[in-house]
Design goal:
The complex is a heterodimer. Chain A is mainly α. Chain A has helices spanning 3-26, 33-38, 45-56, 59-72, 78-104, 109-117, 120-152, 159-207, 213-220, 231-247, 249-257, 261-289, 307-315, 317-355, 361-382, 392-404, 407-414, 421-441, 449-467, 474-487, 489-500. Chain A is globular and about 75 Å long. Chain B is elongated. Classes of the chains: A mainly alpha, B mainly alpha. The interface between A and B is large, with 54 and 46 residues.
């Protein structure tokens, strides 16, 4: 039996399992946006941990990060470091997003922005930037999976067929299942690709000389054992992929979906082990050890994003099919959340908010499903553009970089009460304009487009906020008073006692 | 409590910032610490410290916050109902 036939059989079995899970999950579905997009805010610890991890990690991890480690060696170890930061971000940002989301029944990030700043324009900006930023991210899941299929089967499954297979998988699963099905299948897929990744790491380490594996590379690839410098290069990726863990709309909405804050708390202590010690380090070991002579036949820099399929196509084609299914699992588990999120932004923040306010809940869910199918089709079309088929990490970083420019404005409701509507709008415009200009024309400074945009956006947010004043601060005060009360109740008492002593009212401009 | 919180968060980000020292040539020799290249061993050491900080934050702040927030919503549901 040919490799292509074996691979297709494995994929069909895999799809059947996913459909079973999605079908089972969808039995509990109610026709409400909160249920369809946020699994009715009912995710438990295991599902929450797996769905946040699986939605973040994708083909860029199983293929792209491994390729980056092959090309850049320990320089890309920054990935393992920023993956630990994710755990702290769950506390610093995720818990606040959950709290405010639960309190005010928010479904999208735009819901929070409009209510807090009293600005429909900010809702619109968050929705548009979110959707645009998700496109490159969804794209690499499709292209990465298609390339993996192509490499494993030695071109028997052409790229275009791979794209169609990925598109069909994703479209069917997401349309059927909604947020709950996505979270449940993420859990299955997360365990699946996590286990496969550990297995591959063990195979690579043992085939490269065990504990002597890195030592042996001194003779063949000494360059990858030292950091090549280029701080601003890695800072650009680290900022996007680090902050992306909470600012990307599909991740933000994961925080809304948690059943209770304790679920998030438990997720935060599992995250360093899952995100960094397991996922990031496995990618590091596999990528760097791929330099071991003869380990991955036919490997070149150009094909370095396909190390795993290349390896298995030479040694164990049958297991290779399972591995490619794992790569596809990683892609689907990300793209399903991203698709759901972009559908919710389009439906909730654009259609329902600005066009059809009186639309029924069932109709809203129907429009969301139609949007998922439309977005899947759009991604499939874009994946045939040659520019969309580059290295996976840079394309992913572009998507993250676009959404990164929302960070300053998001700091308003989460931390900085002095931030104003004008400051928030200006920061997004300046951030995105800077990113676009530097991306197209370059910059005399070493900072990358996303980093430059974020710095200038932050500066704009602070300056414009200090220079302007919002007319009505009631909602803002309510948000920050609530946060202060629940995060640091003892500080309320301290403020009260200071006030009583006659020092005057204590400002609550930040809730750190 | 807020000071301890700020201190822990500050320490965490200092450790994270220090993971970039090899980018500036510090802890970046072609030497080995055990079976790991020096710069990688440095990053992993700091990651280990930050993992410990995550646990401290969990017990000192995240868990108590979760209990307070859960109680608040329980009270709301029992009373006037969640908005």
């Amino acid at each position: 039996m040919s490799q292509a036939a074996i691979t297709i059989i494995v994929l069909v079995i895999f799809l059947a399992i996913l459909l079973l899970i999605s079908n089972f999950a969808s039995k509990e579905n109610a026709a409400t946006p909160s249920d369809f997009f946020l699994a009715n805010r009912g995710l438990g610890t295991i599902v929450m941990t797996m769905t946040t991890g699986a939605s973040y990690f994708s083909t860029w991890t199983l293929l792209g990060a491994i390729g980056s480690h092959y090309r850049d060696g320990v320089w890309f170890a920054a990935f393992a470091a920023w993956a630990v930061v994710h755990a702290l971000f769950i506390w610093l940002f995720g818990s606040r997003i959950w709290y405010l989301g639960r309190k005010h029944n928010f479904i999208t990030p735009g819901d929070m922005m409009e209510k807090y700043f009293k600005s429909p324009g900010l809702r619109l900006l968050f929705a548009i930037v979110g959707i645009v930023g998700l496109v490159p991210y969804m794209l690499i899941q499709i292209t990465g999976g298609a390339f993996a299929l192509n490499s494993l089967t030695d071109n028997e499954i052409p790229y275009w067929v791979g794209v169609m297979i990925m598109g069909a998988f994703v479209g069917i699963i997401v349309t059927l299942s909604g947020g709950r099905g996505a979270a449940w299948s993420d859990t299955f897929m997360g365990f699946f690709f996590g286990t496969v990744l550990v297995l591959i790491t063990v195979i690579f380490v043992s085939r490269s000389g065990g504990f002597e594996a890195f030592n042996s590379l001194q003779a063949t690839a000494p360059d990858i054992l030292v950091n090549k410098g280029n701080f601003w290069g890695i800072a650009e990726t680290a900022l996007g992929l680090g902050f992306g863990f909470w600012i990307m709309p599909h991740m933000w909405q994961k925080f809304y979906s948690a059943k209770s804050p304790m679920i998030l708390a438990k997720t935060s202590i599992i995250t360093p082990f899952w995100n960094s010690w397991l996922m990031a380090l496995s990618a590091l070991f596999i990528g760097m050890l791929a330099h071991t002579p003869g380990l991955v036949p036919g490997l070149t820099t150009e094909t370095s994003d396909r190390i795993i399929p290349l390896f298995f196509s030479s040694y164990a084609p049958l297991f290779g099919s399972v591995v490619v299914a794992a790569v596809i699992a990683a892609g689907i588990s990300t793209v399903n959340s991203a698709l759901l999120s972009s559908a919710s932004l389009l439906v909730n923040d654009l259609v329902v908010r600005f066009m059809k306010k009186d639309v029924s809940l069932a109709k809203t869910t129907f429009i969301a499903k139609a949007t998922v199918l439309f977005m899947t089709l759009l991604i499939i079309v874009i994946s045939f553009i040659p520019a969309a088929q580059g290295f996976l990490v840079p394309v992913a970083a572009l998507g993250y970089g676009i959404v990164l420019q929302l960070v300053p404005a998001a700091l308003g409701p989460l931390y900085w009460q002095r931030g104003t509507k004008m400051g928030a709008i200006a920061s997004i415009i300046v951030g995105e304009a800077t990113l676009t200009l530097i991306y197209l024309f370059g910059s005399p400074l070493p900072l990358g487009p996303a980093t430059s945009g974020l710095f200038l956006g932050l500066l704009t947010f602070v300056i414009v906020s200090l220079a302007t004043q919002d007319q009505d601060d009631t909602v803002k005060s309510e948000f920050h008073d609530d946060l202060k009360k629940v995060y640091f109740p003892e500080s309320i008492e301290e403020d009260y006692s200071i006030e009583k002593k006659g020092v005057g009212p204590v400002g609550n401009e930040t809730t750190i | 409590m807020r000071k301890l919180h700020a201190l822990l968060i500050g320490l965490f980000f200092v450790c994270y910032a220090l993971t970039f020292l090899p980018n500036f040539g510090i802890f970046n020799n072609l030497d080995f610490v055990g079976f790991l290249p020096q710069s990688l061993a440095w990053v992993l050491l700091l990651n280990a410290i930050n993992t410990v900080i995550i646990f401290i934050v969990y017990f000192k702040f995240f868990k108590p916050f979760s209990e307070r927030a859960s109680k608040e919503f329980e009270n709301l549901e029992e009373g006037e109902g969640v908005k």
